[in-house]
Amino acid sequence: MFKFISIFLLISSLISSPLLGARENYINNSSFNKSCSYFLSKIAPEDFQINTPDKERTPAFFTKDVIEVFIEDDIENIWKKYINLDFEKILKTSLSDVCKVYYPSTQPHQKLTLGMRAFINMNLKSPVPFLPSQKSMTALEVTKILEKEKIIEISYLEGTPSKGWQTIELVAQGKNKTKLIHTAYYKGNNELIHRFYSPVHRAIWNEIHNKAKN
Length: 214
Known about the structure:
With 214 residues, the protein is an alpha+beta fold. It is 27% helix and 30% strand.
């Protein structure tokens, strides 16, 4: 019960938190309890900006959260699975649904590509009867695909309740064994968001990785 209350408190706190980005005059005056389709009706998906540029990415200034998943399969097979995932389906979880997946015009759809952006609704029902359900938007962009190193980097876009970035790295552990290391570097927009980021992040991505590896 504590876990669900914690997650709900995180989302509830978003209502009073400012959104990030270049469109401060518009976004900062918008409430978080609106779906991503609301923001996408005002701002084109290609116009959202990365909220933590490379020059601001000093790991010591961010909290680090690591998820490790061990998979009974060859590293090349796992890499191919992740590159060819249908992200409109895989990003839909018990805590989130996909509002839009945006692909650069020159890239194929339904494949992991540089510049691909996912706009996700966080839809959480209140565990307390008198508190309403809340919605908020999380926006992500694929910013690096390093095939040789087997690393995928995902960066947060403006509109997300925390600054930072994530990496998904595959490491061979012998024949037909692979370790997936999902590392998030994050800094919440306020103390409550920062405190409860990890359980929300873990719940969503554990569900995604469990679907992806099967």
